[in-house]
From TrEMBL:
One Gene Ontology MF term: zinc ion binding
UniProt KW Acetylation keyword: no
Gene3D superfamilies recorded: 1.10.8.50, MutM-like, N-terminal (3.20.190.10)
Lineage: Eukaryota, Fungi, Dikarya, Ascomycota, Pezizomycotina
Keyword set, alphabetical order: DNA damage, DNA repair, DNA-binding, Glycosidase, Hydrolase, Lyase, Multifunctional enzyme
GO BP of this protein: base-excision repair
Record's protein name: Formamidopyrimidine-DNA glycosylase
Region (Disordered): 295-355, 372-413
Protease as UniProt keyword: no
SUPFAM superfamilies: N-terminal domain of MutM-like DNA repair proteins, S13-like H2TH domain
Length: 413
C-alpha cells in the first residue's frame, strides 16, 4: 500500500506535470467500488473534471487531491494497489526489472484517463489512475480549495506528521499515548490518530526508536515518547523528502533488509548479524529486531511467540492452506484504519478502511460540514441509488503484507 512517502511522490509529479494545465479530455471507467463507495460516479467525475485547470495539489497522509480552477475538486486514496501514472514518464516507486518492456498505453486497470490541452508549443500530458485490486477511492468534494482538509474524509483523519509538524509535537504525542491502551504500532497505524503511517513506515519508526511494536502506548515513559516523536519526524520527513525512492534511503534503515522474508536462502539478518523477526498478530505482520527493540512494559503478545524466519527454515502453514493464506494476505494488505462510527443504537462500530459517507443523505447528496457550514459532496447518480438506500457496511481494517513488497523499488525521481 502506498504510504506517506509514495503519496508525496504522486503530489510531486502532479505539480510537475499537471499544475497550470487545462484538462481537455477525461475518460472515466465505471467502478462501483472505486467511485461508488466514495459517494461518486465515473460520469460525475468525467463531467466535473473536463475543461478545468489544475491549480495545485495537496496531501494529508495517504490522501491526496487536485485543486481545480473551480469546485468540485477530486480527492483520492490509492488503497492497496492504486497509482497515478503518466505517459512517457516513469513515476512509479518500483523499479522496472532488467529487460522488462515498456508498459503499453493506456495501462491496464484504468479508472480514469486525463489529457491536457497542448499549450505554448508543449506536448499534451496524459495521466492514468490505475488500481488492480479496486480498494482505491475517488471522490469529488464541493467546497473551496482551501477548505478541502476540513471536509470528509480528511477531517476524520489525524494530522500529517510532515505537513503538520506544528501539531504533531512531543506534548501532542504524549497526550495521545497516555490515552491509548493499545500497542504503540497499532496507535500509529490508526489514521484517526495520525495520517500516512502504514506498515513499513511504522516498522521503521519502531526500529529507529528501539521500541517493541506491541508495547502498550500508555506504558511509555516521557523519555520514550520524546524518542518516538523524534523517530516519527526523522523517518517520515526523510522518506517524503526522498519521494519514497528506497535506493536513496539510509543504509542503516530496516527497510533495506526486511524484504527477504520467504525468499530462498534468505538470511533475514542485518549487516551486523542481528536477526530480523516477523511478528504476526491479529493478521498484521511486523518486522522486528528483538535484540534492539526491547520490551520495557506490557506487550500485546510475548516475543517468544514470534516466528524468526531464517532462510529455508521458514515455517509453513498447515492444513487447508491456500484459502486461509489468501484470506490472511488480504487482511494484512488492507491497512487504512479509520475512526469508529456510532450506530443507530449509539454503539460504536468497527474501524473502517475508509469512511464512505460521513454525513446525512438528503435527496441523493451527502452533507458534511466546514466550520458549521453545509458542504455538499458529489453523489453517485443512478436510478438504483435513488430508489434504494445504500447500505453503508463497515469495511474491516486489514494490513499491508510487509512480506509481499520487495525492495526493487524506484530508482529515478
Amino acid at each position: 500500500m502506498p504510504e506517506i512517502a509514495e503519496v508525496a511522490r504522486t503530489v510531486h509529479y502532479i505539480r510537475k506535470l499537471l499544475k497550470g494545465k487545462t484538462i481537455a479530455k477525461v475518460v472515466a471507467n465505471e467502478d462501483n467500488n472505486v467511485y461508488g463507495k466514495a459517494g461518486c460516479s465515473h460520469t460525475e467525475f468525467q463531467k466535473h473534471m473536463t475543461g478545468k485547470q489544475v491549480v495545485d495539489a495537496g496531501q494529508q497522509g495517504k490522501y491526496f487531491w487536485m485543486i481545480m480552477s473551480s469546485p468540485p475538486h477530486p480527492v483520492m486514496h490509492f488503497g492497496m494497489s492504486g497509482w497515478l501514472k503518466f505517459k512517457d514518464e516513469h513515476t512509479y516507486y518500483y523499479r522496472r526489472k532488467e529487460g522488462e518492456a515498456e508498459e503499453p498505453w493506456p495501462p491496464k486497470f484504468v479508472k480514469f484517463l486525463l489529457e491536457t490541452a497542448p499549450e505554448s508549443g508543449e506536448d499534451k500530458v496524459e495521466a492514468a489512475f490505475v488500481d488492480m485490486r479496486r480498494f482505491a477511492r475517488i471522490r469529488l468534494v464541493d467546497c473551496p480549495g482551501e477548505e478541502i482538509r476540513n471536509v470528509t474524509p480528511l477531517k476524520e483523519n489525524g494530522p500529517d506528521p510532515v505537513i503538520d509538524k506544528d501539531v504533531v509535537t512531543v506534548e501532542w504525542l504524549k497526550t495521545k499515548c497516555r490515552a491509548k491502551k493499545v500497542p504503540i504500532k497499532a496507535m500509529l497505524l490508526d489514521q484517526a490518530n495520525i495520517s500516512g503511517i502504514g506498515n513499513w513506515v511504522g516498522d521503521e519508526i519502531m526500529y529507529n526508536a528501539k521500541m517493541h511494536p506491541e508495547q502498550y502506548a500508555n506504558t511509555l515513559s516521557d523519555e520514550q515518547i520524546a524518542q518516538l516523536h523524534k523517530s516519527i519526524q526523522y523517518v517520515c520527513t526523510t522518506a517524503v523528502e526522498l519521494l519514497g525512492d528506497s535506493e536513496k534511503f539510509p543504509d542503516d534503515w530496516l527497510f533495506k533488509h526486511r524484504w527477504q522474508k520467504g525468499k530462498k536462502n534468505a538470511s533475514n539478518t542485518l549487516p551486523n548479524g542481528e536477526k530480523i523477526a516477523f511478528l504476526t498478530v491479529g493478521g498484521r505482520t511486523s518486522a522486528v529486531v528483538p535484540s534492539i527493540q526491547k520490551k520495557t512494559g506490557p506487550v500485546a503478545k510475548e516475543m517468544d511467540e514470534a516466528e524468526i524466519v531464517d532462510g529455508d527454515d521458514e515455517k509453513k502453514p498447515k492444513g487447508k492452506g491456500k484459502k486461509r493464506k489468501a484470506a490472511v494476505e488480504e487482511d494484512e494488505e488492507e491497512e487504512e484504519i479509520m475512526p469508529k462510527k456510532t450506530t443507530a443504537r449509539g454503539k460504536k462500530g468497527g474501524i473502517k478502511d475508509e469512511i464512505d459517507d460521513a454525513g446525512t443523505v438528503v435527496n441523493g447528496t451527502v452533507n458534511g460540514t466546514v466550520k458549521g457550514k453545509k458542504v455538499k459532496q458529489i453523489k453517485q447518480e443512478s436510478t438504483a441509488a435513488e430508489t434504494k438506500p445504500t447500505k453503508l457496511g463497515a469495511v474491516k481494517a486489514v494490513e499491508d503484507n510487509s512480506g509481499r513488497r520487495r525492495s526493487g523499488r524506484l530508482s529515478r525521481s
